Amino acid sequence: MRRMNRARRSQAESGGPRVPGLAQMRALAHPLRLRILELFAEQPRTTKQVAELLGQPPTRLYHHVAALERAGLLRLTETRKKRGTLERWYEAVARTFGTSPPSEKRRSQSKESAARRAIALTVLEQSRQELVAAMHRPREERPMLARVVLVAPRERMRALRRRLSQVVRDVQRDFASEEDAPPASEHERWALTMTFTPILRGKQRRPVGRG
Fold it and tell me: I need a surface site. Which of 77, 79, 122, 201 has the fewest CB within 10 A?
């Protein structure tokens, strides 16, 4: 497992985010599948192990794991015999996924845009649920929530976008699984969700003339 983690880290640092296709984006537009893929992206696991982390019965996850595998988002890495049964270990094909460029065909572009919107809403809804749940745990360390509206020229906004993207990559690299990491029982799992988006201006009302 540790040898496999080293290979995955080097691949993630050198290859960059994987760009999903339309079928993959559709498979991801489901809150439970998104959480499943996140856990498989951390390290190779079995469906039973992922179910235990999510507090779900394994029977509920099997068809979701199969759908992610069919879409090319998960791959089978190993099978093991254990007590007369066959354990299947899966891992995500990439640690991070980026957005796909717009298609040249109008119909394909429309479908891809709808799939991207579905994924975005899934991610935001998942983050909302996690934030609300964390806020109801007074004894736990509080989550962070910030919103800042910025006003600057377009070139400066583009520079900030690149800067934020680098921050995300740095965080992913710094928190990658290490061989000398503490036992899993001492781990905490936090989610970082970042949005950086233009604020669309509403239609300006025309001034009413006098007379």
Answer: 201
